[in-house]
Amino acid sequence: MRIELEKRANPSTLFSILSPFIALALTIVAGGIMFALLGKSPTSALYSFFIEPLLDVWSLHEIAIKAAPLILIGAGLSICYRSNNWNIGAEGQFIAGAIAGAIVPVVFHDWHSSLVLPLMLIFGMIGGALYAGIPAFLKAHMNTNEILTSLMLVYIAQLFLDWLVRGPWRSPDAYNFPVTRDFAPEAILPEMIASGRANLGFAFAIIAAVGLWIMMRYTLKGFEITVLGQSERAGRFAGFSSKRMIWFSMLLSGALAGLAGISEVSGTIGKLQPIISPGYGFTAIIVAFLGRLNPLGIIAAGLFLALTYVGGEAVQLTLSVSDKVTRVFQGLLLFFVLSCDTLIQYKIRLVFLRFGQSSEGAH
Amino acid sequence: MAGKRGRVSAVGASEGRGSALLAVRSLTKLFGSFAACNGIDLEIQPGEIHALLGENGAGKSTLVKMLFGVLAPTSGDILWKGEAVRIPSPGAARRLGIGMVFQHFSLFEALTVAENIALSLSPGISLSKVAEEASRLSHLYGLPLDPKAHVADLSVGERQRIEIVRALLQNPELIILDEPTSVLTPQEADRLFETLAKLKAEGRSVLYISHRLEEVQRICDRATVLRHGKVTGACDPRQETPASLARMMVGSDVASVTAAGTNTKGEVLLEARHLSVPARTPFAVTLKNVCLKVRGGEVLAIAGVAGNGQGELFDTLSGEYPASDASAVFIRGKAAGNLGITARRLMGAGFVPEERHGHAAVPALPLSDNLVLARSQSDRKTFLAGGLLGIIRQAVVRIASKRISETMDVRKSGENPAAGSLSGGNLQKYIVGRELDRQPAVLIVNQPTWGVDAGAASRIRQALVDLAKSGSAVLVISQDLDEIFEVATEIAVVNEGRLSDAYPAHELTREKIGLLMGGMYGKTDGEVAHAH
């Protein structure tokens, strides 16, 4: 027996719209089963995972904090993926941005000026963009696979950060803990509203997502991205260069990941430490696909994935389950989103073969 | 017309005689609610060459696939020697005695002829026996073939012979040939026709699918014409004129194209000077010292068998892959060899590539977006707003798109459907219209009517001729000799990356072109190619 995927002639528009919601429902059902198998009550577990965080101002702020990097990175990745460039290394660009942005408050910690914060943000974007420039260069000029190179660069960035905070950038006043000195107050990204911790990073995320949406929807650049993503040959006919698009999309997504990185360390952590991200760069891939590679959809998807982080922390406390539960939920979600999309485009056919030869039975 | 339809029913009335080798009764194939074949009746007598005529999308391929067991009919009967049969697979069709030669060959290039043939036979037959039998058959039917040759080294015509021999090894009583001459030079086609005559003399039947009316008239005993999935006529093609056959195919008179004739010749608007381009990929053709000139008012047609450098020539002339030397290509007197496609468009050139889907158009995008695809820079002032932001003015683009559709009679569902939803002919009309709409001084078209129905083809050809008459230079690359003679004022032939001299169209015969296609420059006029 063999399973074949047969392309549907007319994929349903209704189901294409419903697909993220179906995936969500399936994730919740599968999650409920998982909790039941763990010996916890599925209803109360799901309640504290998905509902409780929404009822509390503190946790709403936490959601905004965690959604900000997801949306920023996810929106940038959507441009990459639409143009057929598969940047998987946003996590590394996030870290590169955080390190580059932290040069100002860590190395020049005696310089106090209102220019510090803007400079940090710009450095962060440049750092992320340059780091994404490595796989872009390799793809455009050496024809390497950007999926592999960008992914491998993540580990290099992580280890480089680890070395920095244990070595040259280690704070003299931190009793040998692997952290840099705390950022000065003018190097801290301010909060958005008085009621909680959510910082300007969330505003950056919304502005970036809306801006990219306008670009994709109304401008020639967005058209170029769409065309090159669907057919390189047609793009060449239109006079668009796929090489330049590799650079554009990789640098753009790298810059946004870098901005997310510096916003995170400046707004939420306040210093550099060995681990600055719970995997935002990878989770943002789920966000990008759950948002159907549409920057506005990515805002919603980013908020939802942020909820899984906050809800995951909540069930850790209330039900004492492992922190891996969050990753399992995110994995389930990506799995169901991709399978729903596949089943909308294709139908499954089982092909049964007789023993040995093909099924050429005469009439 | 009415008289001919009368004869149709007379042929149909022979049913019940039971002498037919293959008969088809109200055969229908539905794809969803769309009837690709709708109540087809067809009879093939022993020892006849039966033509199946029809435009693209008429249902020819669907019908044949049902006969060869590739598709299952929705309803209707297939009678083989008077008995109703079900043909569930190509294997079952072969066992009945039906052989098929597809338009697109299924051969392994790295294997030899004999190995390829052995693959289609049941295992256990030794390779030497296959080779022996294959070379016996190939000599018997005038299909010279070396069993030890590697397929990669063979021409398209020779590859087709492998497929024919492969079909003959099964000793079929009915052989189906799908557009067999579309890939052949006139000389190769002549050879094929001799083979078919031999098969016929042995009492075998041939179902010959084609849209080339002259061939059908030349070799076929009877013809069944399909249109929109229905039989619109059955006739003796020798009793018909090409025009009357075309009428059955298209359903209305095909406007004959008024050739450009002797227009007043203008200045040279497009020129290639000693253009040499190395092959970009291992399978590409190297262009060798190509020289050509097209004046305003001229249509230069470049003939040649597929894969002799047509695609490479188009890529270089369009600037999609520019040459390294600026003076290799001149557009309106200015060196453009190293410029990209956008710069060449801004110099007044327009381009129509061969492949519609994924090259000339993005199938998933609406027509209006596909208009922007070719004209975002040449019509920057009208189509874009907001300066550097480059905001696309959708309303303006849609109006222009509507104008093109109306001028070229593009039939489509809805105002602005996805390009991929249009039929090949209608999409091609749009793609050509998209360039004509801006009145380019130079138009370069690769295979303007490839896979396009007769109605659309004549419309497109007329448009090309009219553009030349208005003073533009038109370069047409085509494999279709009928088309070339319809539109061209000058003709050159490309062979293995070399371009022959251009000759005035009225001085060339088909035989001469055929010889040039085969690379025999010497035998034409004793001239050496590319003397410009």
TrEMBL record, chain A:
CDD domains per UniProt: TM_PBP1_transp_TpRbsC_like
Pfam families per the record?
A: BPD_transp_2
The question of whether Cell membrane is a record keyword is answered with yes
Give any GO molecular function from the UniProt entry: transmembrane transporter activity
What keywords appear on the UniProt entry?
Cell membrane, Membrane, Transmembrane, Transmembrane helix
Q: Name one GO cellular component term.
A: plasma membrane
Record bears the keyword Cell membrane: yes
Q: Where are the transmembrane segments?
A: 12-38, 58-80, 92-109, 115-138, 147-165, 198-216, 245-263, 298-319, 325-344
* Topology class, membrane: Multi-pass membrane protein
Main subcellular localisation: membrane
Q: Where in the cell is it found?
A: Cell membrane
Which PANTHER family does the UniProt entry name for this protein?
ABC TRANSPORTER, PERMEASE PROTEIN, GUANOSINE ABC TRANSPORTER PERMEASE PROTEIN NUPP
What protein does this entry describe?
Answer: ABC transporter permease
Q: To which species is this protein native?
A: Shinella kummerowiae
Name the lineage: Bacteria, Pseudomonadati, Pseudomonadota, Alphaproteobacteria, Hyphomicrobiales
UniProtKB/TrEMBL annotation, chain B:
Q: Which domain of life is it from?
A: Bacteria
Task: Report the family membership.
Answer: Belongs to the ABC transporter superfamily.
One Pfam family cited in the UniProt record for this chain:
ABC_tran
Q: Which InterPro entries match?
A: AAA+_ATPase, ABC_carbohydrate_import_ATPase, ABC_transporter-like_ATP-bd, ABC_transporter-like_CS, P-loop_NTPase
Q: What is this protein called?
A: ATP-binding cassette domain-containing protein
The source organism is Shinella kummerowiae
Q: Which UniProt keywords apply?
A: ATP-binding, Cell membrane, Membrane, Nucleotide-binding, Repeat, Sugar transport, Translocase, Transport
For this chain, one GO molecular function annotation is: ATP binding
Cellular compartments annotated: Cell membrane
Which positions fall inside the ABC transporter domain?
A: 22-253, 272-521
Keyword field contains Nucleotide-binding: yes
Q: Got a GO cellular component term for this one?
A: plasma membrane
What does the record say about its membrane topology? Peripheral membrane protein
Taking the first listed entry, what is the main subcellular location of this protein, grouped into a coarse class? membrane
